[in-house]
Write the C-alpha cells for this entry.
Amino acid sequence: MVYKQLTDYCFGPGKLERGAVKSLESEALQALKSVKNEEKSGQLPIISLCRESADLREITEFATHIRNNFTRLVILGTGGSSLCGHALAGFMQNRFTKGSTEVIFLQNVDPATFSDFFKNTNLSKTAFLTISKSGSSVETLAQMLACVEEAKTISPTTHFFSITTPGDNPLRRISKNLGIKTYDHDPNVGGRFSILSLVGLIPAIVAGMDAVKLRAGAKKFLDHHAEEAAISASLHVALMRNNIWQNVLMTYPDNLEDLNIWYRQIWAESIGKNGTGSTPIKSMGTIDQHSQMQLYLGGRKDKFYNFITLKMPTDKFKLPSPGYPELEYLTGKTLGDLMNAEQKATIDTLVANKRPVRVIELEKLDEETLGMLIMHLMLETILTAHLLGVNPYDQPAVEEGKIKTREFMGRERNSI
C-alpha cells in the first residue's frame, strides 16, 4: 500500500485504552460528514480545491511566464502566504538542485537579509510576487515597498506581481498605482489553508511541480482515506485529555522539512484557542535523533510522536568495506538501507519506552502522495479543532499582535 497510517502504537499499558477513544472516533466521523457536506455544497473551498481544474489555466500561464522570462522568483509574504508556497517549492528544490527558475522566500523583515539579497541578485532576471490575503499585513507591505524602492533599475509593471483578495485594500491600491498586475485571492480560502490555491501552486509550478497530480492526490485522500484523519484527530484529543500536550511531527525525507513547518502553523493557529491545544514541534530525522531524542526518551512523558516515513528505494550509494571488523555490518549496504534502519529503530525505541506513536508510512514520495499528506494534515487539524470545540478557521490572538505592531510603528513615526 502506497500510503498507510499505523495507530496501534498509541494503545497499551501506560498509553490509551481503545474503549476511551471510541466515542471520540464516532464524534470525529460525524464532524467529517459535516466537513464533507460543506465541501460538496461549496462552503469549504480549502477542501474542494482538490476537485478544481478551471483555475489551473491562469495559474499555469503565469508560472510559465515566470519560468520563461526570469531566473529567480522572490515570494514576499509571511505566515500562510509564504509557508504554503514554501512547503511545495521546497519539496521540488533543495540547496543542490534548482530548476531553470529558482524560487526563494523573503518571509521576515530582517534588514540584513534584504541587504544580502540585493547584493547578490541580478534584478533584470528577478520577478517579485507579493502575497497577502488581507492586503494589509504590515510585514508584507513593508517587504514590497522596500523591494520596489531598492530595485529602481527595473520596472514594477514587468517585474512585480501581487495576490490579494478582491476589493479595496492597501496592497491592491499600491499595486494599481505602480501598474502591478494583481491576481485574486479567494476570500473564502484561509491563508494558512491556501496551499492548494494559486498561493501555493504558483511557486510550486515555477519550481517544477505537477499541480494536477498534487490535487489528484489530495482528492484521493479525501474520497478514499478521509476516515484516517478522523481516527488521528480522535487520538490527538484523547491524548490531550491524558495530559499529552506536545505534538511532535518527525519527518525523515529532507524534502518534507518545509511541509513540516507549514503543518506547525496550521496546527497552532487552528487549535490553540480557549486555553486548549497541543504545541506542535517540528522534528527531522535523522538529525534530531542526535539532538532531541535524549529529551524524548529521558524527559517528561507529555509528547505524542507522529512520524512520516518513506520506504527508501535501492540507491547507488553502496558502502565499501570500511576495513575494520567492528564496522563490517556496513559493507554492501546503502544510504537507503541506513535510512530505513534509522526510521524503524527510532520508532521501535519510543514504542518500547511506552511513548504514544503514530506512523504514516509512504512507499513512494511524489506529487500525488504529497497531496495525500496535505489533505490528511488539513482534515486532521480541522477535525481536532471540532473535537476541542474551537473554530479552526480564525486566529484572534494573531490579530491582536498585528494591531499592536501598527500602534508601535505609529508611535515611533510620531516621535521623530
